[in-house]
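Question thread 4412

I'm putting together a teaching handout and wanted feedback from people who do this every day. The idea is simple: show students a protein as raw sequence, then show them the structure tokens that encode its fold, then repeat with a second protein so they can compare. Below is the first pair exactly as I plan to print it.
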Amino acid sequence: MTIAVRPVPPAHETRAPRPWSGPGFIEFVAIIALMMAVTAISIDNLLPAFPAIEARFAVADPNRLQLLVYVYMIGFGVAQIVYGPVSDTVGRRPVLLASLAIYVVGCGLAMAAPSFGWLLAARIIQGIGAAGGRVLSVAIVRDRFAGREMASVMSFTMMVFLIVPMIAPAIGGMMLALGSWVYVFVSMLVLAFWLTVWFSWRMPETLHPEYRRPLSPAATWAAIRLTLRTRVAIGYTTALGLLTGCIMGYVGSAQQVFDTGLYHLGPLFPLAFGLVAGAMGTATLINARVVRRLGMRMMSHSGVIAFTLVGLLQVGVGLAYNGHPPLLLFLAILALNQFLISFAMPNFNALALEPLGAIAGTASSFLGFYTTILGAFCGFLIGQAFDGTVLPVGIGYAALGGLALIVVAWTERGRLFRGGAAG
């Protein structure tokens, strides 16, 4: 069975023919960012609780605590393959609300966990629920915008989204101060409730009527095949997955690097983590303001090249100090790399979806699944290689950045910095 896919029209034609009755630009970006923030806070505010969870469940190997991040990402990645096709049939609103209900169930199971294995299972369910926000946030943006305008919206969204990691560990620390790691999951429930109320009240259905698709395995597979045959889509998604692996490797090992395993910052761990996240937020704001003028390819290609070079510097500094460089030097280089990666990731995401507007839900779903699974696998390799030094993170950044650059060069047939009017 094949499906006919209408060519992507200009940005102004991708919007619904009826007048837009939803929130204004700033509120729209804020709601989309909150949808994505559920994912971030569900990872980052749990990091300070690792020692308490280790003690509660007598976890023998500290590296096993990283599984709380990676199993969440597995559930998060696998579920994305479902949300997109379903939302292309029934619409974005009901699917997001259903995913939030699953997320709440995962939070409740985590709070009642009698064992570490139970907690891991609850984290998988949380990831399955949070995946709806990731898929539908991108699909809703693509429903409304295209080209550089879409890239600008995604960058503003990512800027707000990246503020969350700056404060999430501090929120987790505050919850711990109330007496138990269980309260960390209470903060997740509060965020999910807030999103449910705000989205239900203010965001109308954004799926264009003529883009509704039958829910059938054949139609879904046809859309996936179209995505796989689109060189720009699969190439930039692969590069995005590799860079996501860098982020996941860092996040998975951050608590050990900054707190229990290397620098022993204790209560200052959220501050160090927030400073690095702040570099990402700053770069994303710059990208949102500049991408309309320079284009997505110029910004992202420059970013991934510089990221790879600084990754090599990171390895060199690590080797020079036997894997334990001075904290301020390590933070400066790490923050610079997080700054540079933020010029690539939002633009890679927008470039991948640009030619797939007619199947935005399914495309976002499949590409999100692929990106997350690839990123979780690469991040797991980096995190599990933690040996009490900063070298695994540095080597991971340099290697994955170099691979991402190679993939981008293949995608563009060796012609970097060039592209169409939108890029």
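The second pair follows. I'd like the answer to focus on this one:
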Amino acid sequence: MIVFSNALGATATILGSLLNIYFWIVIISAVLSWVKPDPYNPIVRTLRALTEPVFYRVRKWLPFTYMSGLDFSPLVVLLTIELVNNIVIASMRQYALTLR
């Protein structure tokens, strides 16, 4: 059981770290959308490639996220990331600790 507990704890840590990185990618992408950077910049293209598919799905599932020229899909993504971090990842960590 100790091996499974350690594996579950490590998985929770890795997933939590990946979600935190994506959280900051979404924030940077949202801030860049305010200043209209060069669309041919490789960093901007990478950020768009990482975030636009998720934003598109949010806009498709929740059409009210785009109102009056304001796009609230990054906010929905950030809230979802925080919910997953605080519910799923925290539960995985707690379960891993109870297995020891």
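Top answer:
Good format. For the second protein you could add a caption like this: The chain has one domain: 2-98. Strands lie at 66-67, 70-71.
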